[in-house]
């Protein structure tokens, strides 16, 4: 192989190593975000359950006529 070909192969290998590292870093971010989304979704479900309970317990609108009638 020529010197130029070897240089190109080395450059490609360095680029590949850098790209693999970036992909691994991004994968770690995605995993952390997935855990956070799961945690937030659970909290939201809990809060929505509380809202539903409070809505069920709240008195309904009264059917009184306004005072000007």
Could you describe the 3D structure shown?
There is one protein chain. With 69 residues, this protein is an all-alpha fold. Helix content is 80%, strand content 0%. The protein is built from one helix and no strands. It has one helix at 3-57. The protein is rod-shaped, with a radius of gyration of 30 Å. The N and C termini lie far apart (100 Å).
Number of DSSP helical runs: 1
Which percent range fits the helix content?
Answer: over 70%
Radius of gyration, taken over Cα atoms and rounded to an integer in Å: 30 Å
Q: Care to count the β-strands?
A: 0
Intertermini distance = 100 Å
Main β-sheet description: none
The unreliable regions are none
What fraction of residues sit in β-strands? under 5%
Features:
69 residues, mainly alpha, 80% helix
Outline of this structure?
The protein is 80% helix and 0% strand. It has one helix spanning 3-57. The mean pLDDT is 93.
Record the SSE blueprint.
Elements: H1 3-57
